[in-house]
Specification:
Keywords: Carbohydrate metabolism, Isomerase. The chain is mainly beta. It contains 3 helices and 25 strands. The chain has helices at about 85-90, 215-220, 260-265, and strands at about 25-35, 40-50, 55-60, 65-70, 75-80, 100, 110, 115, 120, 130, 145-150, 150-160, 170-180, 185-190, 200-205, 220-225, 225-235, 240-245, 255-260, 275-280, 285-295, 300-305, 310-315, 350-355, 375-385.
Amino acid sequence: MACGRKASYPLHGPRPKKTSGVTLEDNVFDITKDEITGKPITITKYKWENENEMKVEMIDYGACIVGIEMPDKKGTIDDVVLGFSKFEEYSNKAAYYFGATIGRVANRIANSALTIRGKTFRLKSNIPPHQLNGGIKGFDKAIWSSYVQDKRVVMSHHSPDYDEGFPGDVIVNGFFELTDDNEFLIEYRAYSTKPTWVNLTNHTYFNLGGHDQGSIELYNHNFTINAEYISEVNRIMIPTGYKAVIDKTPFDLRISRGLKETFTKNPDLIGFDHNYIITKGEYQQDAFMARVSHPQSGRILEVYSNQPTLQFYTANKLPTTPEFHKGDPKKLDILVGKSGKNYYKHGGFCLSPQYYPDAINHQERHPKFILNPGDIYYNTIRYKFIVQK
């Protein structure tokens, strides 16, 4: 279990990691103003670089990954993360959750309500009547406290009692680190003063062909996900609490499958926004979840986590291309990202490890997960990058 337990963590001890060749620096990303006092607030950017010329950048607004640069098989370095260059752009486009830490609770909560020990709490709804990714002002919209600890960055956020309707004062700590093995490590810990639900994840949009390469290169990606089931949802994407078999369906990615091939064979499939139930042992930590390859660049991304599910999303809600609207300027929705590049539908993908979505409304079908006072919520995510020559 990811929370509601008092066992030490990780269960099998920390994984060995190489950081001797990694450098870490911090500088000013942008300056904004406090909403209440009007005083200036500095948004800090942290930048890692390892001995393989891989670079990772984060900011303390939303504990957000804003860039990952890495070479391809020919040595050409590209940024493979969609994002922006200024704080204002992140805050204005917050509905897309670019690179952000999601909380208190990732994914959807039906009818914006949760019941704990017989008491029902009404949550703030941002997709009425339901809640998505923490509500109107989730963790992705907070400026986290942050500091450097050796070669990792520690970010902290205090979510007060009844924040977005959730019970309990919650303290969240995020630990972020790049290794010389081209792994970016994320570790979340959370503590609460009352029984509550915490379900954190990261919502980075990747495109291994380059952040500005759009759907043309995304369709050249091959996806493998270690799952036999997905979480069943109704017609408006609210989980039913049951799992659905994916054998002989377009969602079966146990064997590597090209995205272009999948969409071509299934024209009614508008994209992926599905929660995969990962195949793993009961006490297995750091389980393999997914592998994504982009043969044209030779770049590969693997995802590992201690969480039971993985949300796979192909940026279906980003603006549609001008060709889709036949150039009608009245229908165009322009989203300008880094380097002045436009981002469109299917321009990136997210792989977000998390607990079962809407589990609070299906407690009879899921293991215990309530975070009680004195317990520790613990979540690890490992993004491993490989270059295949």
